[in-house]
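Handout, page 2. Input:
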Amino acid sequence: MPIDLELLHSKLEELRKKYEHLQYLDTDPICFPKKYKDPLDIEVVSFISCLYAYGNVKSIQSFLKPIFEALGPSPYQSLCVGDEKFEHFLKNLKVYRFQTKKDNQIFFRTLKRVLQNLEKKSPLFESKFIEGQTKFTAESSISKFQKFWEEELKITKGNQKLSYGLQFLIGKPEAKSPKKRLSLFLRWMVRTAYPDFGFYQRIHPNQIPFPLDVHIQKLIRILGITDRKTFGAKEAYLIKEFFKKINPADPLLYDFYLTRVGIIERCNAKYEKTICEVCYLKEVCLVFGSATGN
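Output:
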């Protein structure tokens, strides 16, 4: 049965109006860069937040909060200076899932060196996605960004092979994975509408892949957008193309709001009366429809 795009659009708009409020930012890693005003701080904090944005929200926030507190009112300046306070900061870094303490120390040493070598102006990293190209491309731009960081991390390690934790953090350039965390970073940097920042002017919202986190993967299946069970880079762009039918200029408009259905409403892609009966998406949900015989 074909999707009723008009009905889906109206339900997504209802969802957007529900969650388009500051009170819901604390349920998302974007709450960290939202605390800063300087674009340099926002971009650096966004980059760090997105790289470590895997696992549950509580774990992510528990790891990141002490980091940004230690970096003080200007994380960009703290990282660029690299004085005794920075060394103390490195010593206090913790393990985070796949990243050992040493992995995290190497990452932040690398970030410090990269920032020191870049021009002190916003945006910092946009050119690394499109260097040597006329525009952002689905085929190579994110991989190009990953290769840049891969090489910089290797320099910090004395040209030794990256550990599993560091390779996971930045991702493998050649992998066909959805590259969710860097797609999320791009969403924050490219989109100008709430809740994003819109610092990047050479990359456009309708070019970047949809950030396919676990919540989005569940929701796009139960909304009938796809029946795929595995998701890679190809699917991230296919889902973006689907949402272009609803909003050609800004296909990632509903990403933040849809993920609230998973994070806040606890949607588990199966019928649960207390969750499903009050959901804004129930009229377009295949799970709800099958549960009610519709």
